[in-house]
Design goal:
The complex is a heterodimer of chains A (591) and B (333). Chain A is α+β, with helices and mostly antiparallel strands and 591 residues long. Chain A contains 18 helices and 23 strands. Chain B has two domains: 41 residues, no CATH class; 231 residues, MetI-like fold (Orthogonal Bundle), CATH 1.10.3720. The chains are: A alpha+beta (591), B mainly alpha (333). The interface between A and B is large, with 51 and 47 residues.
Chain lengths: 591, 333
């Protein structure tokens, strides 16, 4: 599973054809008064990337309401049922998990700090038992004190993937659950102490099936945000999530918007990481993506909640106007856009044929297809992105001097593979993602230079993994040798990024995110990484995994994702937290 | 429709128009066939003639697309990323990169020649529109005539079938069908298969529009004196259908064909816009529009394919209207 980033498909007005002819005359009414108005407040000078690695416009001023907007919507505001990175970032304003990522700029944001718990987890020697002590004095929004049983209940209910299909499955996979336990709703009486114990109201103990030294990353999952069993309404809980953080929901209408106000029962004394500056938050859902950009620039909206950057239309505006560019940041996400090279399909079962694709690909064209160096990302030479701890830079398949591909090397590889004149395969991509279509066309052009004939086939994004490219039998039947893919880290280490996409043992009948990597050597390295206790050594093993995957040439990396985001007007304490690759929503305030 | 049109053009009595122009001239007064009269009326209709000329121009463009792009453009799928600003993905030059090499400018992201793609797009649009129209006209005419002429149960069944087809959510069906069809089917593959498929979808589901009109016409024609006369002389079903009724249906068939073509051009564009038409990188007008939506700050990208669709539909409609006026002067405008 990946923490998803929201991909905006602006394919809304289906029959736009009639008005298409009058699509000219774009009005570039960049409000010139904006930048001067901001200059009047001497707090901070606008500069490109001023919110990266440092705090832009620091302030302790309280008050005001921050206006968010999003072109789509939350998958759910229920902590058990969300897998969007932006949601994990935002829900910290109303929910407190046992531990969380430090609201700090840059690398420091990857640090796990205690939140609801007094300290980080205490592990047993074999890393199989993890104990947390809850802070005293933490209350729900109705004034009831938070007990360890509420945390246990929250984790157990998040295991119910029928009710909460969106969330991650780490607890399902790792907790030592009794066999007869199905879900908190279906089997409420089954004893679950073998998985989670609550010896007293302030203590919670997790028991894992096998040891994992990085369990604090699990404890930071939204699933550990306490839920009072009496208030749990299953799938309807999202309509009123009971807050433990400094803000609570005043209204929550999926598809329309959300509004949060101060939670009177939150006590600053129990909380070391939140400043709770604004008086509340307003979130508008389902805004038009292009309109959202314009409103962000004009100041009508302060934060694009999804944080995936501006649309192509606004991109040229922001980059072309120095005053606007100074209000923008270009954060790196822990995400790689790549193409799986599927060895199940002939002749890609031959390593040299796979290598031919690596050499023939035009990396610059791919980068432009994914929207260029600012909105798309840096040209990737391996699967694991640089923001993951332990990333090592290497390039096994240099794409020529100008990065447009090495045709001679590609032809050599083709000859070695016994297909000197090339071959024909199909390539799958998500039809509603223009970037993937553009990337497919770029690959098609580049590979045609060495005689590899690519036929592009678009499939609906919603079922892409369940019915199409994520299904090995489908790929075999349809001769799909290349498939567009993308992956974001659940947290920024090798496990959080690689474990789900390179382990061949995770490959099932359908719904695979790992479409291509099948190598026992890789699997063995993953096992080695899991059992390596020392963090630096462990990161080294993950880097080895990355290298091995590239040696096998099962993955054609395209870009390490970046986004061009605009800082909203009048915001204080703006910075990008590396843990999310987004502005830290916990820290934001208004002037 | 009271003036039966004689396609054979022989042995016809003079219509009133026949005397008008020949009156003062040296030539003797001559009778003119209805076909000639219609042609004369059409020639006088400047707007319809402009439409017709544009349609012919389009057909020539589609046929000679490789020659035209060879002279004035680049191969339609060739990338020109040196024309593109990699940061914004838009064309480097102003005005969308329009210059003497790139008459319509370049596409954002990949720098393909927009002129060549619009020219090649005409092929797909016209090909699908023509064949789909032909298919629906053939099915519609046959079933319409049969329903109208035989009546009774036959009429009942065919008419209900038309109702069903008219009530069918065509767009949804088209999306579903185009999505599940495999790479190779019916001995075809690639673009050819997609084109055949689109022709089939569009043609097969729009026949009731023309079928209903033909049925209505046939219903009134079969009660007419000349049909009775033929029947009383011993003519049988097939003879009456093909020699008496069908010739009188040529005018409505022609008119509705020309009016159906632009509808089908739009329908094909809509399907391509939704991504279920022809596969990339083959250029289609609808597909280009769909790509252009994300680049509304580069208006030329949307303008040229949009204009191509607009002009094509307009030309066919003007021509179709003119044709109707020429063939059936008594219909109100």
């Amino acid at each position: 599973m990946t923490r998803r980033s929201l991909v905006v498909a602006t394919l809304s007005g289906a029959l736009l054809l009639g008005v298409a002819a009058c699509g000219g005359g774009s009005t570039s009414t960049s409000p010139s008064g904006g930048s001067t108005g901001e200059a009047a407040a001497p707090a901070a000078a606008d500069a490109f990337n001023a919110g990266i690695g440092k705090v832009f416009n620091p302030s302790d001023k309280k008050g005001g309401v921050i206006k968010f907007a999003i072109s789509d919507d939350f998958d759910s505001v229920d902590p058990a049922d969300t897998y969007y990175g932006f949601a994990w970032d935002f829900l910290r304003v109303y929910g407190r998990s046992l531990v969380t990522y430090k609201p700090a700029p840059g690398q420091e944001g990857n640090q796990v700090v205690p939140d609801l718990a007094e300290s980080l987890g205490q592990a047993s020697d074999d890393n199989k038992t993890w104990t947390y002590k809850l802070r005293t004095g933490v209350k729900f929004e109705d004034g009831t004190p938070v007990k360890s049983a509420d945390v246990k209940y929250a984790v157990l209910r998040s295991l119910d993937k029928k009710t909460f299909p969106n969330g991650p499955t780490y607890f399902n996979d790792w907790l030592d659950l009794p066999k007869d336990f199905v879900s908190v709703y279906k089997t409420p009486d089954v004893k679950t102490d073998s998985a989670i114990e609550t010896p007293d109201d302030q203590t919670i103990v997790f028991h894992l099936k096998k040891g994992y030294a990085g369990f604090d990353n699990f404890a930071a999952l939204p699933g550990t945000i306490p839920v009072p069993q009496a208030k749990d309404t299953g799938v309807k809980y999202r309509e009123h999530v009971v807050a433990t953080g400094p803000y609570m929901f005043k209204s929550a209408e999926a598809g329309k918007g959300y509004s949060l106000v101060r939670n009177p029962n939150w006590d600053q004394a129990t909380d070391q990481i939140r400043k709770a500056l604004p008086d509340g938050y307003e979130i508008e859902a389902k805004a038009n993506a292009d309109d959202l950009d314009n409103r962000l620039i004009s100041g009508d909206v302060q934060v694009d909640l999804a944080g995936t950057g501006v649309q192509p239309a606004a991109l040229s505006r922001v980059l072309g106007d120095p005053a606007l560019k100074a209000r923008s940041d270009n954060p790196t996400a822990a995400r790689t856009w790549y193409w799986s090279i599927i060895g199940d399909v002939k002749p890609l079962d031959n390593l040299d044929c796979r290598k031919a694709i690596q050499f023939a690909a035009d990396k610059v064209a791919l980068q432009t297809a994914y929207n260029g160096p600012f909105a798309g990302g840096d040209i990737a030479t391996s699967l694991m992105p640089p923001s993951i701890a332990g990333h090592q830079d290497f390039n096994l398949y240099p794409a020529g001097a100008d990065n447009h591909g090495d045709v001679a090397k590609a032809k050599e590889a083709l000859t070695a593979c016994g297909q000197p004149n090339g071959f024909a395969i199909n390539a799958a991509y998500r039809a509603d993602r223009p970037k993937e279509k553009q990337a497919g066309e770029a690959l098609q052009q580049a590979l045609a230079r060495v005689g590899i004939k690519l036929t592009l086939k678009g499939y609906p994004a919603g079922d892409y993994f369940a019915l199409y490219a994520g299904k090995p039998s489908f790929n075999k039947e349809n001769n799909i040798g290349l498939a567009a893919n993308g992956w974001g880290a659940d947290w920024n280490d090798g496990f959080g990024f690689l474990s789900q996409i390179v382990d061949s043992r995770t490959i099932r009948e359908a719904g695979n995110y790992n479409m291509s990597v099948k190598d026992p050597a890789v699997d063995a390295l993953i096992d080695k990484a899991m059992t390596t206790a020392d963090a630096t050594a462990r990161n080294g093993v993950w880097a080895e995994v990355d290298k091995k995957v590239m040696e096998d040439s099962y993955v054609l990396p395209a870009v390490w994702a970046k986004a061009l985001t605009v800082r909203g007007k009048g915001l204080t304490n703006v910075f990008v937290n590396d843990a999310y690759g987004l502005y830290d929503y916990l820290a934001l305030g208004v002037q | 429709m009271t003036a039966p049109l004689d396609v054979s053009g022989t042995e016809l009595q003079a219509a009133p128009e026949a005397v008008v122009e020949g009156a003062g001239g040296a030539k003797a007064i001559q009778g003119r066939s209805l076909g000639q009269i219609a042609w004369m009326r059409l020639k006088r209709d400047k707007v319809a003639m402009a439409g017709a000329i544009f349609v012919i121009f389009l057909i020539l463009v589609a046929i000679f697309a490789p020659v035209i792009t060879g002279l004035l453009g680049h191969p339609p799928n060739e990338f020109h990323q040196d024309m593109i600003n990699p940061e914004t993905m838009g064309p480097k030059a102003s005005w969308g990169g329009i210059n003497k090499d790139f008459l319509f400018g370049v596409e954002p992201v990949n720098g393909r020649d927009l002129f060549s793609r619009v020219v090649y797009g005409a092929r797909i649009s016209l090909l699908i529109a023509f064949f789909a129209t032909m298919l629906s006209v053939v099915i519609g005419t046959v079933l319409g005539v049969v329903a109208g002429y035989f009546g009774g149960w036959t009429d009942m069944i065919i008419s209900r079938a038309m109702d069903v087809f008219l009530a069918f959510p065509l767009l949804v069906f088209a999306i579903a069908l185009a999505g599940v069809i495999p790479d190779k089917a019916f001995g075809l593959e690639g673009d050819t298969l997609r084109i055949v498929l689109l022709v089939f979808i569009i043609g097969f589901f729009s026949w009731p529009y023309i079928g209903r009109i033909i049925r209505g016409q046939t219903l009134s024609l079969r009660e007419r004196e000349f049909v009775d006369a033929a029947r009383s002389l011993g003519a049988r079903g097939p003879y009456i259908l093909f020699r008496e009724i069908l010739p009188n249906l040529v005018a409505p068939i022609l008119i509705y064909s020309t009016l159906l073509i632009p509808t089908n051009v739009l329908f094909e564009a809509a399907l391509s816009f939704l991504g279920v038409g022809i596969r990339p990188p083959t250029a289609t007008w609808g597909g280009m529009l769909s790509d252009a939506v994300h680049f509304y700050t580069v208006p030329h990208f949307m303008f040229f394919p949009g204009m191509a669709i607009f002009l094509t539909v307009l030309a066919f409609n003007l021509f179709g209207d003119g044709l109707r006026d020429a063939l059936d002067p008594r219909s109100s405008r």
